[in-house]
UniProtKB/TrEMBL annotation:
Residue positions binding ATP: G11, M12, G13, K14, S15, T16
Highest taxon listed in the record's lineage: Bacteria
Protein name: Dephospho-CoA kinase
Keywords: ATP-binding, Coenzyme A biosynthesis, Cytoplasm, Kinase, Nucleotide-binding, Transferase
Locations listed in the record: Cytoplasm
Reactions the enzyme catalyzes: 3'-dephospho-CoA + ATP = ADP + CoA + H(+)
Organism the protein comes from: Oryzicola mucosus
């Protein structure tokens, strides 16, 4: 079974690209979605213990949490020490189930793949990218997003240019959905050995 790691900086179109892999029949494990689920369950008591006042009705309030951890490297490390092992456990379960099901190809959607040493857990890396001005426009349109928040998030992500250099494949979402979808189709064909696809490397 081939494991593709899907990553990209904030606002690059990673979720849209993950959906394209799903539409093509490739199982995708979404780390962000897993964290959302953990915040509403297993991780909530530990997060509340480490960051009092961040859990409301048994669910981690992400706004309250971000006020305590954003721009605070020490707090961020404490949070990651709680969340990352739980996400990795869920990922291992997903891979075991997929293997059992006889899947030939799966995708691990890992936002901080390079930042958290995730490269070792995948066979190939797909980086989702777009021009900086498009990224900025997308991110600042998000509810509750500010210039400061955006800068803080970017500061802890490997720069897009470096990600592109370390990628096996690049999906450019700045040229519209159809171009991105063609790239995804080409990547699937390429990794599964059908060289007739559109290589996106």
């Amino acid at each position: 079974m081939i494991v593709l790691g899907l990553t990209g900086s904030i606002g690059m179109g990673k979720s849209t690209t993950a959906a394209m892999f799903r539409e093509a029949g490739v199982p995708v494990h979404d780390s962000d979605e897993t964290v959302h689920r953990l915040y509403a369950g297993k991780a909530a008591p530990s997060v509340e213990e480490a960051f009092p006042g961040t859990v409301v009705d048994g669910v981690v309030d992400r706004n309250r949490l971000s006020k305590q951890v954003l721009g605070n490297p020490e707090a961020m490390k404490r949070l990651e020490a709680i969340v990352h092992p739980l996400v990795r456990d869920e990922m291992a379960d997903f891979l075991a189930r997929s293997k059992q099901d006889g899947q030939k190809l799966v995708v691990l959607d890992i936002p901080l793949l390079f930042e958290t040493g995730g490269r070792d857990r995948v066979d190939k890396v797909v980086v989702v990218s777009a021009p900086a001005e498009i990224q900025r426009q997308r991110v600042l349109e998000r509810p509750g997003m500010t210039e400061e928040k955006f800068a803080a998030i970017l500061a802890k992500q490997v720069p897009d240019a470096e990600k592109r250099l370390r990628a096996d494949y690049i999906v450019d979402t700045g040229q519209g959905l159809e171009v991105a979808r063609q790239a995804v189709t080409g990547i699937i064909a390429d990794v599964l050995g059908d060289k007739g696809g559109i290589a996106a490397s």
